[in-house]
Specification:
Blueprint: H1 9-22, H2 32-60, H3 66-84, H4 89-97, H5 105-129
Helix pairs in contact: 1-2, 1-4, 1-5, 2-3, 2-5
Keywords: Membrane, Transmembrane, Transmembrane helix
Length: about 130
Amino acid sequence: MKKQINMNIVKIIFFHIYNSYYNDGSYRNDVPHWTAFAITACSLACLIVTFVCVIVNLVTGGRPTALLLYPIFLVLLIYFFYNILFKKKYQIIYTQLIGGRWDTKIMRCFSWIIILIGFISVGLYAYIFNQK
């Protein structure tokens, strides 16, 4: 009996990034689940931290401190680790999603767009809110 896990957008995005690196087991000089985890976790954590920064900036009129942002980023990375890599959940995610309704080119493009937005959001925030 296969173990079922709840799917959420984080796992679907991870699946598409992982599937881009894994290619049905043919990979060299790389550990696809760690690479996909790093890309997904860092990008989504950047996106959420940027959202927090915008909210803090709009509410207080100032920039948030590193004392607020570093713990948020760390908690998000731990959350993503627990939901993706802990006890090899990435294998369950892969087997449940491969060939399923979320395994489409549109969702793959959507996943990569979300990843790019996550990385771009930090620079965009710095550009917009740090002008004098």
